[in-house]
Amino acid sequence: MAVTVLLALFIVAVAAGYLYVRDKLDQIPRMAVSGLQPAGSGDPQNILIVGSDTRAGESAAAALHFGSTSDVSGQRSDTIVLVHVDPRTSKAALLSIPRDTFVPIAGTGTSNRINAAFNTSPSQLVATISQNFGIAVNHYVQEDFGGLQELTDAVGGVCMNFTFPVRDSTPTGRGSETGLAIPTPGPHLLNGTDALAFVRSRYYQYFDKGAWHPEGTGDIGRIERQHEFVRALAAKAIQAAHNPFTGAHVLGRAVKTIAIDQTFSSSVMLRMAIKLRTLRPADVPSFTLPYRAVNGYGSFGDVLLPEPGQDAQVIAAWQQYGAPGGSQTTTASTAPPTTKRGATTARTPPTTTTTARPAWDPTAC
What we know:
CATH class: Alpha Beta
């Protein structure tokens, strides 16, 4: 995920020489994105990070599991994460917006899942987020999932500890959508292919008491597992940065996997990296916007409707995290259970991020 790449860039940039890093950062493709709000490198700011599920340029193995360009045309924002960074305290926090969140799409006069906005342009996604949630976006970063695979391999793999054997299934329950297959409990070193299968898994199952059980939360459970993997991969990137040769290799891979907005200059990134040099990935909290799950929402199928009051509370806690002298308590949402077709879930109050992680979700080794 691009959030990991960004953290890796910040971490490795501090450990390497200025001119070398500046040259590498200059190689990142820039794009024009409208609607971004200017902010100084020393000011708190919000970075919109999008993981694209475009199938262009993927390997034959990936196409086997995830579909090729002939199967899936165009692109959608498979992952939408905002990173709030506060350089004053070297703190950061993640906020995920589930891709099935159903909102008015900026400039269209119609509503759809929020990831549909990205299919038009990053600018429309920025405008849609600002319009619906009042979040000022300062910078934009984009990556396809192949970048995660390359970066995982560049750091030598990422160790995750699984309580149960796990696998990915499909909507029909036959076969595997991503190819994820962890046959035994315990620590496993995930290579790039394994990592891609893990973070993309929506039909996640675990083996317990002689049977396979669906995890049951779909994209919401996937978001939580992605956040855990992000922390583990970023921590591994820190270790890699201690070796100048490995660190240079990681940096070289990282700059090839993302594109950023044209205002996110190399000098701005370097100044931000220096101010965030004491950031510890394990301490980065994650938030997910609360929602109300609706099954069979007209012609759109199953969607997630925003909960404006709860959303505002979570966004406020996320944006205040890391402020000098502020409270470091966190609030996040849980995934409400789904209901019968056409019905909606009851409103569920947000819970803290200290809520116990499901036993079937792995942790970093």
